# Entry
Amino acid sequence: MSASLCGTWDMVSNVNFEGYMVALGLHSELELKLMSISRQSGISPCLRKTAIKLKLKKVIEEQGGVCRIKTLSVFRNYTTSFTVGHQFEEVTRGLDNQCLKSTVTWDGDRLVCEQIGQKKNRGWAHWIEDDKLHLELYCDGQVCKQVFKKKGLKD
Ligand code: ECB
# Structure
């Protein structure tokens, strides 16, 4: 893990989060009813409305070769831990509740994750630009762009 990604970061912008969430799973009313008697999956319009208002925080840490990325909010938290270059099982619990085969690698200065599951072209990329932490979340042609500033620093 490049030391520069490590730290606590506060969201300053979030573009097309809605499009990304829709790409993760848009369900009809009937599908939502069927899912509620089996296992919740996908993201309902109501959940998307809540999610889009959130100011997210990233806490990125590395210890002994294991990287941990925490995404924190007042509503829900999500943590993933991985070793760069090693495929792992990622369960997106509390997000779209999918089981993925994920691999994080460095592509130059970008930390890139490929998430293999039911959705095509799913993953994310982190990099530093102008002292800010940038994140692209992508799924099936939709790209959400999020930018974070280091905690305690001005814009
Ligand atoms: C955990 C805070 C977001 C809670 C939103 C709740 C419900 C909406 C359901 C799904 C939205 C899909 C993704 C949420 C967006 C960000 C969370 C983590 C995204 C991610 O994969 O982060 C990576 C890269 O930093 C590390 O896990």
